[in-house]
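Supplementary Methods S3. Complex input for the guanosine-5'-triphosphate-bound model.
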Amino acid sequence: MKKTETSETAKKVEVNTAPAGENTASAAEQSAEAAPKKKKFTAVFRPQNAQQIRVKPKSSPKPARTKTAAAPKDSEKELKQGVQPDNHAAKPAEKAAPAARTEKPETDTAAKSTEQKTAAKPVAPVRPAAPVRHTAPTRPVGSIIRNGVVVQLNTLQGDRPQGNYQSRGGQAGRPAQGDRRQGSYGNRSGSYQGGRPAQGQNGSSGGRSSGGYQGNRNVQTQGGSYGNRSGSYQGGRPAQGQGGRSGSFSARPGSGYDNRKGGNFASKNVGGGDTPLVKKPVSNRPSKNNFKDKNDKRYKTEDGFKNGKGGKVTRHPFIMPEKPKAAKVEEEIKEIILPENITISELAKKMKKNASELIKKLFAKGELYTINSEIPYEKAEELALEYEILCSPEEKIDVIAELLKEEKEDVGEMVSRPPVVCVMGHVDHGKTSLLDAIRKTSVTSREAGGITQHIGAYMVKVKDRPITFLDTPGHEAFTAMRMRGAQSTDIAVLVVAADDGIMPQTVEAINHAKAAGVDIIVAINKIDKPAANIERVKQELMQYELVAEDWGGTTICCPISAKTHEGIENLLEMILLTADVKELKANPNRNARGLVVEAQLDKGKGPVATVLVQKGTLHVGDFVAAGSCYGKIRAMLNDKGMRVKEAKPSTPVEIQGLSAVPNAGEIFVAMDSDKEAKDFAATFVSEGKNKLIEETKAKLSLDDLFGQIKAGEIKELPLIVKADVQGSVEAVKQSLSKLSNEEVQVRVIHSAVGAISESDVALASASNAIIIGFNVRPDATAKSIAEHEHVDIRLYKVIYQAIEDIEHALSGMLAPVFEEKVIGHAEVRALFKASGVGTIAGSYVLDGKIQRGCKARITREGEQIFDGDLASLKRFKDDVKEVNAGYECGLVFEKFNDLMEGDLVEAYAMVEVPRK
Ligand SMILES: Nc1nc2c(ncn2[C@@H]2O[C@H](COP(=O)(O)OP(=O)(O)OP(=O)(O)O)[C@@H](O)[C@H]2O)c(=O)[nH]1
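Predicted complex, serialized as structure tokens:
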């Protein structure tokens, strides 16, 4: 029965051991192989296992190594079990004293385990988890060991405990013999072990040695009981150096073996887990050397000890596994990722140090910090380096960029698309006139009676080929449109008046176009004018690396007259030619994606947006998202105001159905479902909030700024601007921002199209901002919240009124200006000395009045001898507020007593005057 059981247990053990480590597993296997030989040995431990063990002992002859045959068995079993110390333990226990399964014995065994370890090494297999399980008590050892091991071992300790337990398990067998004693001993040994391992350990060797010692002690102490004896022997011997023998010995003591084995295993196998931390590996070897007997050496192999005579090698998971683990732990700690700013407490956590330790370190450098102090990355890195911890900056992921990221499309599915063109140039050089001319020459003339809608973009057809013009003013096409890094246009037509040449805004336009990597076609306008000088324009263009084709360059220059329409056709043809060269293509068979060109809140239609489809085809009914807005397209109008059902690449359309008004320049994407569109928008909203919070946080955490605010050097006026159309938002925003001066910074923290909403008020409340509404009103909820939160909402219909109001607000915020104002004169006519007060000037008020707390200048014979505060003003013996002309009074001046009769006192006050 027992034998069979043992084999079963062995299997179980293997399973158990597996987690402990491959080594243990292999050991188990080996042990399993060896087991038959060792069968003779019985483990004392688990009564349950004991039976099984018995069986094994018979079969296992190897145990013989050890003096007791049983020991070998145990070892074998253990080996088989590898990880299953319990079984082994049980076996020995059975032999020694089956009864003793008590935890105490386990502890003893644990103690002995160290010795056993040496001896046990061979026996490693004994680990039999049994002891561990049983040995809750043994744990003391484990715990001790843990303590001994110190924190580093913690993780390992967890494992170790098992090792210890196993060995204990072996001891557990003993317990049967004399539970109490063993128990007590176990404790002792446990304590010892703990101490020792801690001391020397690190390595398994520590464990062993301690185990060995403990084993001895235990044994000794146990004395009377057989189990004890055996234990002592085992312990002692193993300790001395018999690995194999001890194994055999352990067989006797059962417990002893178990312990040893367990110990060994624990240290080795289990240790594999735990030890790594402790450095067991190293220690194990040394201990082995110390303990090794001749026999041991014989049996020893790099992999472990040979089992008994068979010469088979039992693998000892011991050292090998442990080291790598320890190394890993250290590595983990050595590199940390830090954000831009981090608090001391967070840094300490990452460094696995105590915050107070860091604070002390900084304090030693003369820098005062608290655990909540935020320090920049550089400082944190410097600090971490002192602990030999490397830092790397946290990589910020642009969630929105990730969201908008697109995979490369299959070129095969792409078809050519119309070019998207924008017109740029200096003021009055004829941009509008050119666009009008183009419309008239192409679109309007063909679409007889058709009314071209002003939707910010339109298409014209030249020789049946469409061209899309973005009708956005100036370089906004590049700035706003490029907000999300999207390329809005393919070709830029630079309008330069032939009679005016290159002007500042022309240069600006050139730079924007170049930065956007857009092809430039120069339209030299107003050639109908007598003062027109085309060649001069071409010459000037050369300064900006735009060399006309007829001058040997590559820049297409088209002389035109927006007034007479001369050259317009040629310009359009040139645009098409350039488009051909660029081979503009897009895939129309996919979800649409493009740019919001313009957007506004229409009283009848709600939010409407002019979008330029860049890829795919947009359909009515599509779910779209644009920035923080989303919705299902209810209706779609083309540039002629006609309802359309779909829009292909490069087509501008006005869409209705969005939940709110998106920002111009925002990318819109068509989604497969409403939920996707909503999620997309939600991400934008949360990202926006995060950014806002980050900005606020960053500001508040800047000591510099705080210092300046404290010193009154910087003040800020946060504003939220809401208007009915995007154009107004921009206008109000810019006008207000211009009001910033050296002392007060006007900061528009949020601006958008639409009514003043609840979230606007919430934001204003949180950031102490004023809401400026231009042609919009707050909704009912927003209004009531604003009243409750005392948020100031200012509504305007004319921009200048808003500006004027803000200007006033600013002047109120400016540091008051004080001016000196003379309030009266007095003459010193008598002097009195008063102890503790000083000299009292008995004076007569000549004119005006003298007021308490005023300032005074004293002149003597035309020469000023004092300018400072009036410390006290008395009428007779009473303090008074003021003394009018014609009355006498007593004056005492702040820290000035050098007065003489006849001195003239001029009283004055500093009064606040309104700023001009
Ligand atoms: N003679 C002549 N006058 C032109 C021509 N093109 C434009 N103009 C005049 O130049 C003036 C400015 O023209 P706009 O088209 O408004 O110029 P713009 O560049 O759009 O000006 P802003 O919108 O203020 O930037 C108008 O009075 C036009 O009539 C042209 O080809 N010949």
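The pocket of guanosine-5'-triphosphate is lined by residues 425, 427-433, 525-526, 528-529, 561-563 (CB under 6 Å). Confidence is low (pLDDT under 50) at residues 1-311, 443-453, 697-711.
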